[in-house]
Amino acid sequence: MSAEARFLTLLRLLADDPAARGLMDDAAVLDLPASQLVLTSDTMVEGVHYLPTDPPDAVGWKLAAVNLSDLAAKGARPIGCLLNYALSGDDDWDSGFLEGLGEALNRHAMPLLGGDTVKMPTGAPRSVSLTAIGEAAGAVPARGGAQAGDRLYVTGPVGDAGVGLDLARADPAASGPLVDAYRRPRPRLAEGALLAPHVSAMMDISDGLLIDAARMGAASGLAVVIDHIPLSPAVERTRGGSSAVMIAAASAGDDYQLLFAMPAAMRPPVAAIPVGHLRAGGGLTLMIDGAVMPLPARLGWEHG
Amino acid sequence: MSAEARFLTLLRLLADDPAARGLMDDAAVLDLPASQLVLTSDTMVEGVHYLPTDPPDAVGWKLAAVNLSDLAAKGARPIGCLLNYALSGDDDWDSGFLEGLGEALNRHAMPLLGGDTVKMPTGAPRSVSLTAIGEAAGAVPARGGAQAGDRLYVTGPVGDAGVGLDLARADPAASGPLVDAYRRPRPRLAEGALLAPHVSAMMDISDGLLIDAARMGAASGLAVVIDHIPLSPAVERTRGGSSAVMIAAASAGDDYQLLFAMPAAMRPPVAAIPVGHLRAGGGLTLMIDGAVMPLPARLGWEHG
């Protein structure tokens, strides 16, 4: 069996949902009750969105996770996905990728429904895309719905993935929770579904707390104040808890925590950490220990 | 404004459907009555799926058209699409691509709802993906539904695009109906919608009449006989009407005619040309002027 035939066989094993029609048809067909459909798509390019030394199963996992994270930000339940895969010419890499992708899809109950597998000319950088379809039960939060006076929360500490990326870059064999945070992010689907009916605005932190909070403020026509940057114990053990570490954590990408705004009188229905608030005006203000700090030159990852 | 900012501005102009949320959110959100969703995705790679000398607007048009053709094969109405675009570093190429894409989307009422724009490392071949979502009103035909005794039809002559590809390869400045058939294929959406309730099997001819008919036969567990290969006047004028020309036309890709099976007693509700029939058994038989012909070594395009 050729490498490509083997890849397609593995892919078909993964696409066992009846809507996928065994990947043998022109399209997937899905019966759906009246609903709100949530659609998102992400492309990951070798050397741009992940390190060439990252293990293939981590790249597969991450491609699923970043799309699932976009569904989480809408409170949506995954319905299915389509994979656009460029065969790399390296059979082990391709099957390792599918293994990690399949693990993430199974874990989060997102069936593979279709897509397209192509061959790239030899030597081209790998590029993989996934399009995810989700279903939202009720109100679908937007980035731009925040109100003046809303509190801002995150579903967990930020900066783990940023430190993990540094560690993986220095040593591709590095492991541990920070490297895992970078390579195998966890989409906050359960939290997103519980939060969606209550938040005034929500998004996932894919590019960094500062830049993503600034985007929420801009979309809502409001000023954003970040007055707390929560670090994990793992980051504090590795890097300490200085202002510089906090600012680096708040401008690093790949966290995939949810960032949401909620009226001050409400209590979040999930574990969440207050990080600031929104008020009339525009722009972003960063405070650490009560003091206004100069913003870093780079607020986050600009092309995530 | 940077080239990337300009591209994103053009992209937002194209994504004017409210469901796209101005491409400013994590995901597109679509209100949908109970329906059957049809999902398809195609990737086109420079030098693999199109010629590096093809004009960018033709590549944009074609990416939309090949996905629309998959919807047509399901009798589906386009609902929207997501674009995964790798910026080429060539501003004129990128905006030319969007122009052709936008033209095809507008022509066929398929709104752009989202996607992802990334930068590829310099020198990488271009790769573009589109995921299309359609809605089917009633029964959704599959490849595998044909019955023994069914007649096989196509919605028009085959081979135009194959000759067009040869002409464009010989001279990138070539023009005319055959080059247009290759560069700007027309998805048969109206025909697909009219046919879907009546056919026992349907697919689009993307890889060649012979290989696609063989796939329909295999999926239906039947033998396929092709006893007529319809050529267009343009192909006959350019190449003549010999058996060799017919066989080349039936094994060339990119036609995007619909191929469908229907009981012999029924009359197709659209203009259609009979090309053969299905019967018990397996395999593909090719007849020209009543004589069985040896099959060509290559039945069609294997990785379209």
UniProtKB/TrEMBL annotation, chains A, B:
GO terms for molecular function: ATP binding; magnesium ion binding; thiamine-phosphate kinase activity. This is Thiamine-monophosphate kinase. It is an enzyme of class 2 (transferase). Residues 25-135 form the PurM-like N-terminal domain. Reaction mechanism of ThiL seems to utilize a direct, inline transfer of the gamma-phosphate of ATP to TMP rather than a phosphorylated enzyme intermediate. The keyword Kinase applies. Pathway: Cofactor biosynthesis; thiamine diphosphate biosynthesis; thiamine diphosphate from thiamine phosphate: step 1/1. Mg(2+) 4 binds at D26, T40, D70. Its EC number is 2.7.4.16. It catalyses: thiamine phosphate + ATP = thiamine diphosphate + ADP. Mg(2+) 1 binds at S41, D42, D116. Keywords: ATP-binding, Kinase, Magnesium, Metal-binding, Nucleotide-binding, Thiamine biosynthesis, Transferase. The gene is thiL. Catalyzes the ATP-dependent phosphorylation of thiamine-monophosphate (TMP) to form thiamine-pyrophosphate (TPP), the active form of vitamin B1. Pfam families: AIRS, AIRS_C. GO terms for biological process: thiamine biosynthetic process; thiamine diphosphate biosynthetic process. It comes from Sphingobium fontiphilum. Mg(2+) 5 binds at D207. Gene3D superfamilies: PurM-like C-terminal domain, PurM-like, N-terminal domain. Mg(2+) 3 binds at D26, D70, D204. HAMAP family: TMP_kinase. Belongs to the thiamine-monophosphate kinase family. Mg(2+) 2 binds at D42, D70. Residues 147-257 form the PurM-like C-terminal domain. Substrate binds at H49, D254, W301.
